[in-house]
């Protein structure tokens, strides 16, 4: 409707509410899954990121949008459990990378495999619907459109 404030129209409010519900459910399940692995949600997120690639702690803090000192504490606890190790960065030996151990990689994989909330509802969507949803979410966060897959 012309002239109507799109931030308060009923459709926008419903979409915002639905997004909030999806995010809350995802966080609840993620925390439960982390707990089953005796991890906090933050520890699980760090381990998940590191299972993709070893990272310097400063970069981990940037990705998690938190203080480097918080990441140091999380890495300390994961290291004490044998899930993460610190190693020199081959590109700059003054920099320490946090990297998962073999057990850390197994734990991250098990954690990912136990997250059903996102997979089950998405499975009810066709591939084209999932691509459309992904592309819309990318636009919303400013990442750009689809890449054809």
Automatic annotation (TrEMBL):
Pfam families xref list: MarR_2 (PF12802)
SMART domains: HTH_MARR
Gene from which this protein is expressed: mhqR_5
The keyword Transcription regulation is assigned to this record: yes
Keywords assigned by UniProt, alphabetized: DNA-binding, Transcription, Transcription regulation
Alphabetical GO biological process terms: response to stress
GO molecular function: DNA binding; DNA-binding transcription factor activity
Native source organism of the sequence: Streptomyces jeddahensis
Residue ranges constituting the HTH marR-type domain according to the UniProt record: 12-142
Protein name: HTH-type transcriptional regulator MhqR
